[in-house]
Specification:
Two copies of one chain form a homodimer. Helix content of chain A is 57%, strand content 8%. By secondary structure, chain A is of the alpha/beta class. Chain A binds a DNA duplex through α2 and α5.
Chain lengths: 285, 285
DNA sequence: CTTGTTTTTGTAACTTTACTACATTTAGAC
DNA sequence: GTCTAAATGTAGTAAAGTTACAAAAACAAG
């Protein structure tokens, strides 16, 4: 991964002073490469060794090496740079930055994907008798989306963000039932409980969540998206986008695995949806 | 023209010693950027000021600046490719292709965004008394997600994918109420009806949908994502991702517009959510 | 082929820049 | 509150780059 994106993605690993340096560099990277360590330190209101340590933490040999790598990372004509939103940004800038950081996060997620659990998930879903997608908060809409896709298929599927409904489903689950639990952190208590119940019933519990999290402990399979820390400090953004794309990939795999006859069915479903829409010609004004 | 090409093309303008330096750099440019001026001079069997003069002749401020420019001239990017999924692709290939095509679609969407309706949407939302997010099918989960974000805010908001609930809300809507209608095609009959009702009641109807569609006719504001044809022929994929990111941008704009005090509130909401999660064990800060 | 002039190159002092060792402060754990 | 560990800063040192100037080389004219 290139340096400038690493700076923004590893921001949480930095100390307070180092974060000041990171913010400054992300704000005006073109300017930073022409500064000396002393002037950069002064501007960031930290000491010179702090800047030096910051460079080392990023794997550079020292400050000059850091500048070199930063310059390369800038020259790369990076299609998208991951920079923080500033207080005085206008709407256009904000929009571009949000798109950029999402693109960046997705690109990183793509590179760090492990296809084995994805393949195993596809297998499990193809063999499933019924499928449930559960999640809370932002992950609820991800689960909602996943179920919406599976509604096109012939395997019964449900979505719920209601703990009681989820619990009932988990209690009634059996082997060959699949439960897909979605949670970015993997630490949502309620969801862990549900997963544990389904697991006890020998259902296949799949977690789209963080590895080594309490939730993943209760999952037979864990699929993770290695997304850098979200841009926005208040709510999940890029992480859930990565989850959605991951689910798209799983669905694409599922569709292919089911074979050509299955895809014929899908075409019929699509055709059937037309009745709910205005046709193209009639309404064009 | 970039530096390294200039060095080779202007060789005849250099003096004898300078040519030695040029030859060395053209031979192994990657190595040169990691050398000090002294070591480079020794290697080229010239003096240090000669190297310095050489840099100046190329329009650089000095040797460090020269290294920086050389580094940039060496760097190059790697774009992602948009390829269709083949019948015999394995899961890994499918996953990569889905991610690639989503990245591609997002990147195109970013470039073709018009910030004016986005800014107007932010304005409308900031001034809203209550907000509704409606959509059907795949767009329902997008609406769901949007409402989930707004649940953190102090303006009352609802999500629904139930036509009756939507109709009731629309009938009761008033000026300063905002209705956000989400539909990729903009041709979903049920949603158009709802939009028309709310529009008649002088509510602000915002469409996240296709321009010049039946739905956009009933909207005061239309925000569009110009997404290329979806990869998958059976269900929306990239289009709804673009919608979600667009909504993220709107929310980021909204959050900023509301000012610092508002963001303090958000921090408190986030803090309050911790109770629903298992705490992190002592790993890294 | 000299001698004066210009250009090129190198030497050495100087300035700036970056790094290291250590002291101080701050934050966290008990 | 006290102890411990981490983070940050201070000051000194080493290294790198630049400048001024002198020596050498190249060139031209007598």
């Amino acid at each position: 991964m290139d340096l400038i994106n690493r700076i923004s993605s590893e921001q949480n690993q930095f100390s307070k002073s180092e974060r000041k340096v990171a913010a400054l560099i992300l704000h005006e990277p073109e300017q930073a490469i022409h500064r000396s360590i002393a002037s950069l330190a002064a501007l960031a209101e930290v000491s010179e060794p702090t800047v030096n340590r910051f460079c080392r933490r990023l794997g550079c040999k020292g400050y000059p090496d850091f500048k070199l790598q930063l310059a390369q990372s800038l020259a790369q004509g990076t299609p998208f740079v991951n920079r923080d939103i500033e207080e005085d940004d206008n709407v256009d800038q904000i929009t571009q930055k949000i798109f950029d950081s999402t693109l960046n996060a997705l690109s990183i997620a793509r590179q760090s994907l492990d296809s084995r659990p994805i393949a195993a998930t596809v297998e499990a879903l193809v063999g499933a008798r019924k499928i449930a997608f559960f999640g809370f908060g932002a992950s609820a809409s991800v689960a909602h989306d996943a179920q919406n896709k599976f509604a096109r298929f012939d395997t019964p599927s449900v979505f719920s963000d209601d703990p009681l409904v989820q619990r009932m489903w988990a209690i009634n689950s059996e082997p060959h039932d699949v439960l897909v639990c979605i949670s970015h952190t993997g630490r949502t208590k309620a969801l862990c409980e549900i997963a544990a119940i389904a697991h006890d019933n020998k259902a296949t519990v799949i977690g789209i969540t963080a590895p080594n999290s309490p939730l993943s402990e209760n999952c037979q399979l864990t699929v993770s998206t290695n997304v850098p820390e979200d841009t926005d400090q208040y709510m999940p953004m890029a992480s859930r986008i990565a989850q959605l794309v991951l689910i798209d990939a799983i669905i694409a795999g599922y569709t292919l695995q089911r074979g050509p006859k299955f895809r014929e069915k899908l075409a019929r479903v699509k055709e059937g949806l037309k009745g709910s829409r205005y046709s193209k010609q009639a309404t064009t004004k």
